[in-house]
Amino acid sequence: MACHCARFGQRFFTMSTEAPTPHHLSTPWTGKVSKTLPHPEYPRPQFVRSEWVNLNGTWEFSQCRESRLSAVIFDQKILVPFPVESALSGVTSHVTEEDHLWYRRTFNRPAGERVLLHFGAVDFSTTVFVNGVEVGHHKGGFDPFSFDITEALISQADQELVVYATDPVDAGAQPRGKQVRSPEGIFYTSTSGIWQTVWLEPVPAISIEKAVIHADPNTGEILVNFSVRGSGVETKFEVQVLNGDVVLATAQSDSATVSVKITDPKVWSPESPFLYDLKLKLLDESGAHLDTVESYTAFREIKIATDSQGIRRIFLNGEPCFMFGPLDQGFWPDGLFTPPTDEALKYDIEVTKRLGFNMIRKHVKVEPDRWYTWCDRLGILVWQDMPSGDKSIRPEEPDIERTPESAAQFELELKAMMDALRNHPSIVCWIPFNEGWGQFDTARITDLTRAYDPTRILDSTTGWSDRGVGDMMDIHDYPGPSSPQPEEHRVAVLGEFGGLGLPVPGHMWQAENWGYQSYKTEAELTQAVIDMFAKLAKLVDEPGLAAAVYTQTTDVETEANGLMTYDRAVLKMDEAKLREAILAVYGSHK
Predict the structure, then answer these.
(1) How far, in Å, are 115, 443, 540, 553 from residue 304 at the CA level?
(2) pLDDT: which is higher, 156 or 103
(3) pLDDT tens digits for range 312-366
(4) What is the reported pTM?
(5) pLDDT tier, 511 (very low <50, low <70, confident <90, very high otherwise)
(6) pLDDT tens for residues 216-254?
(7) What region, left, alpha or beta, does residue 205 occupy, with left being phi > 0 and alpha being psi -120 to 50 degrees?
(8) Is the distance from CB of 16 to CB of 503 less than 8 angstroms?
(9) How many other C-beta atoms lie within 10 A of the C-beta of residue 158?
(10) C-alpha dihedral over 399, 404, 409, 412, to 10 degrees?
(11) Numbered ranges of CATH 3.20.20.80 in the chain
């Protein structure tokens, strides 16, 4: 491979002549994508009803400058749920703030008293029409939303569904993560329009709308708070706790809060990710069945406490737990934000677990719900970033001043993210701000986040502009490693380090690529990482590092600093040696 290197700050760019054209880099799952029903699996594993209709597949599509439905000509086809810019969509088009994205398809009305239309996620502003009737509007690129479309349905078999979306990408101040209109460096190709599953769900006239579940390992209590859609009869609620087909406990209540206790509960951990199945039932006052939803939960406690050496540590289920894992961008060369298949979605987590990591930091992106379910089932701790947006600050600068509209959208989406994900036991930490990007009213946002979900720990600002709040003093050090000093009330965290690069010919997004430090062979990279992790292990004992995040799971577009190539075809280090080095970091703190 002929190449040359050029220095840019801490980053090293490597030029290679052996690389596919962007958007033509496939993964092992690209060819497995169904052209009739991609992502056929149930999209919401923590809130399952037996009856549903998947609307993924080929839709009519138009990308134009027209904002009126009556004037739109649907002259293209698109494969939903892949974003417009992706190769798997069949469109692979550049989207700007001036573009209007229109989708259309027909469907048959499912049998049911009410019909809900669900979207896993659409980026960014969405208006939905059914049979020409506007049924709802939503703003937010990462959170699920739904509309009751019953009143818009007609007697004919074919119902028309039209989705209208716009996305300013980085021309707007909304949360967007790493998406930009002109990708380069650490910023990547944008995702616009529908990028998660679209589906219909028939429900009874009175049904369970939401359930917030909390399991306390100290008491064995599972507390379920129900929300109900519809009215007209007195209701009561029932919770069954199961281990497979065996019912372990049942409780009923006339109130919307049900408490059920388990004797000698099994706790969830990366070593033993035990989940309890739940059946949540809505009954009328006579005890007749109205609605049933299947879910699951786990007994897991996360907190900050002082260990026997007087050092503040992260405690999982009452024991100190060093948390170590990769920074995970969640991008795919064929689907961008959208993985090609559920098998692909699961794969990155499986590799992370196989290598010996116990944690993933999900970086400025919110994944489809199934990703978190796989973390729950496989046993991986998740630190969840809030997607970044708006302006940035340097470490020495004060917080930015957002416009009222920008601040309101951030807070709306922050709460929506926590609402959508709060029942997943794998998620143990929320991260509102990354490296000063969009950072505003830090103390207030920290208080808001903690009050909204007091059951998890909080990394208020990962990297750069620390304000002395939250549960962590978090620094970024490339290549590193290093550690801040633990504080009286906060743990020491290395929120990003590493980024060691190795371009692999034939598996690169494009010719220009970079890593924070670049290597030429698998052996060189493996040894460099082994040496780096050996230094990291010493920091766990002194000064008392509590967690570390290595950059990163995979290469992404021009970044060549992944554990795997962007196409997931190559693990770039000797696996046995890498796993041994990772496991050695924990020492006695696992």
Answers:
(1) 44, 19, 16, 27
(2) 103
(3) 999 999 999 999 999 999 999 999 999 999 999 999 999 999 999 999 999 999 9
(4) 0.95
(5) confident
(6) 999 999 999 999 999 888 999 999 999 999 999 999 999
(7) alpha
(8) yes
(9) 11
(10) 90
(11) 306-586
> Residue 455 gets which letter from DSSP?
T
Extract the tokens encoding 394. Answer: 């340097």
Of 261, 278, 251, nearest to 217 by C-alpha is 261
* CATH number for the segment(s) 218-297: 2.60.40.10
Identify the architecture of domain 306-586 in CATH. Answer: Alpha-Beta Barrel (3.20)
Return the structure tokens found at 486.
């633990």
d(C-alpha 228, C-alpha 235), whole Å: 9
Q: Which fold has domain 33-203?
A: Jelly Rolls (2.60.120)
Q: Angle at CA 119, nearest 5°, toward 116 and 123?
A: 150
Alpha helices of 149-223 — where are they, by DSSP H? none
CA angle 464, 545, 483 (to 5 degrees): 45
What is the separation of C-alpha 387 from the centre of its chain, rounded to a whole number of angstroms?
9
Contact 150, 395 (CB under 8 A): no
Whether the bond between 124 and the residue before it is cis, its omega within 30 degrees of 0, is: yes
Does pLDDT of 60 surpass 50? Answer: yes
